[in-house]
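Encode chain A's predicted structure.
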Amino acid sequence: MNEGYIYKEVIDRRGAGQPVDTYLSGRYTHSTLDQWRRHIAEGRVLLDGSPCATDATLQPLQRLEYHRAPWEEPSAPLDLPVLYDHAGVLVVAKPAGLPTMPGGGFLQHTLLHQVHLLAPSASPMHRLGRWTSGAVVCARTPQAGAALTAQFVARSVHKRYRALASGSPDEESFAVAAPIGPVAYPPLGTLHAATPGGRPASSQFTVLERRNGCFLADVTIATGRPHQIRIHAAAEGHPLVGDPLYEAGGKPSPDGTALPGDPGYRLHAAEVGFVHPTSGEAVRVQARPPSLLQTAAERRR
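Encoded structure for chain A:
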């Protein structure tokens, strides 16, 4: 069981004048109107710090809080090795299976929470998919965060991934520039995929080792679109081995039911590079890939 959570917001013009139970059931549809009334009756919903009645009318600028009771989170690996820690910058190795941010029932079993246990002021500067492992850069101070954010926006942060993809490409190195954007996908409404109307995206694949029906590759990306490497590998006709979502062509199956957070694919953030916000030093941090994503030479070391 986790420790529960307090959701906080300030009422704006859209909420003003509504009964609190109606407002909550319309804004937070994970609970029904009757469930919200039960939460209110249990004293879990507060207005300006005090428990409220179910028919209380919301006023502009009131502080609304929902005190969610502790719940049992889905399991996730929580080991978070520190790869680099210097003058406001922290780099950790995220294990596959650990979500980066809260959501879907995860709160304390997240990279964000585990980083806060290491350094209460630190925050991740970028995200990896739940089942993607590897290096994540965190800022310990607002100043470091602002400087690192500027580098991510300018696309000057070096990002090298290790992936296991299906098939056998004709060339030892190839670039993929398929635009990425939302497409219709019934289980979610929309989903990021390869689409002509999407935003520009660029990935460079370098074959490291050919295996039976698949190949190991290093992938460097200049952009950071959602699920970019999974989409670009599939767009080139080489979906990541075990990917339950993206098929050849870079789109999900029209009648598919898989979700982005489903496991199976093999992807690892092997290296990240940036200019240190304080020293100006060029920093490169590596995260050793799991054994399946290592070359034969790497496994012998």
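The chain has a mean pLDDT of 96.
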